[in-house]
Amino acid sequence: MSHDDHARLAEPAPRVSAGGGSNQVRVRAYNERLVLSLVRQNPGCSKADIARLTGLSAQTVSVIMRSLESDELLMRGEPIRGRVGQPSVPMFINPEAVFSFGVKIGRRSADLVLMDFAGKISKQRHRTYRYPHPDHLLPFICDGIAAMEAEMDENTRARIAGIGIAAPFELWNWAEEVGAPEGAMDIWRHVDLQVEVQTRMSHPVYLRNDATSACGAELVFGAGQRYPDFVYFYIGSFIGGGIVVNSALFVGRTGTAGAIGPLPVRDKHGETRQLLDIASIFVLENLLRERGLDPQPLWYAAEEWIDFGEPLEIWIQDTAAALAQAVVAAASIIDFAAAIIDGGFPAWVRHRLVNATIEAMNRLDLQGVVIPDIVEGEVGDQARAIGGASLPIFDRYLIDQTVLFKDTTHAEGH
Fold first, then answer.
1. What is the CA radius of gyration of the chain?
2. pLDDT digit string (tens) for 57-99?
């Protein structure tokens, strides 16, 4: 087995429950998935381009693309003329071909989105709370999906691939930090959210860790497309992250690779603490409370953040100093091409944080370390929900990123 094969198999599949009901969206064959994935990765490519990229024969590509076009998964652009021979016809993903629901469960808020085949959100709902509880979340998810479906026509409803949930694992572990009453979150020890949603819905339901989902969204739709290897930081109520190696998510033996929250770093007083105790939004929330400021705007929506002045700047500088140490630690183990920083905040906060992290890097001893590019994430505050919504689409229609970088000359044998 090649190195790329090992990389592709390194990530366990997300948990999925098979739904019943009237959903007739079929799983595509390997070569169809390969073609769809390449067209998504290279919008406007032609049949000749696909044949060259895959090693499939021109005849095989023509048959596959005719089938995909007949099923309205692909659509034609205007023919490009002026060259020798037949005009080249650019092909594109049809955004209206497939839809999926994505759910983000956070420690302070939840999001429900409807995403099209091209990764664009067309509908969304948001809810805030003191702490997550299944009695509140299940109606939010199931009633919200039912309401969105009621607004669709029958043809659109038939194109729903499933429901993907992005949620923190072991929610009960952070009850004290989010201010939940003692014992209030212990219920999560006995609740399987995926199963609970599946028993109420006809679509198949998928589940993956929230930070891993956000990393996957960045890989597929964001800055990750430009970097084959990167370490990813997503700052929500608690910071989380992910690792991409050879253009594929790597989660490790137990699924916790890239869970950068527990990483030890030094704070501004020289004391060793976990990264999550410095570089998490709940820390900013506490700073605001200490100064008599209302922290609720942090959880309404990212675009509603205001400039909180001094406490925000303190948090940015402390977070940047901690992130710089985390980047050096990561780069000392793997020669990452980039460190991508994103989170549940507006773009202007992300921009300030990334610049502050770059400045903090320059104050560290970097001898012997090759520093990766430190860049802003491009998916934004909905990265976790988009990552969740991607799970059904990839399971049924696309293939992981690794395959797009492999020698595909033997693809016809699949």
1. 22
2. 999 999 999 999 999 999 998 877 766 656 688 999 999 999 9
Containing structural domain, residue 228: 223-378
Q: Which two tokens stand for residue 257?
A: 């690779």
Token pair of 143 as six digits: 């009633």
d(CA 343, CA 236): 6
Domain membership of residue 405 (yes or no) is no
Instruction: Tell me the whole-structure pTM to 2 decimals.
Output: 0.83
Q: Which amino acid does the sequence have at 120?
A: K
Domain containing 315 — which CATH number? Answer: 3.30.420.40
Instruction: Report yes or no: 283 and 315 within 8 Å, Cβ to Cβ.
Output: yes
Contacts of 168 (CB under 8 A, 6+ apart): 105, 106, 107, 174, 209, 210, 211, 238, 240
CA distances from 387 to 4, 77, 112, 166, 241 (A): 23, 28, 12, 7, 13
Residue 293 lies in a domain: yes
Secondary structure (DSSP) of 128-180: E-SS--HHHHHHHHHHHHHHHHHTS-HHHHTTEEEEEEEE-SSGGGGTTTTTP
Within a domain: residue 320? yes
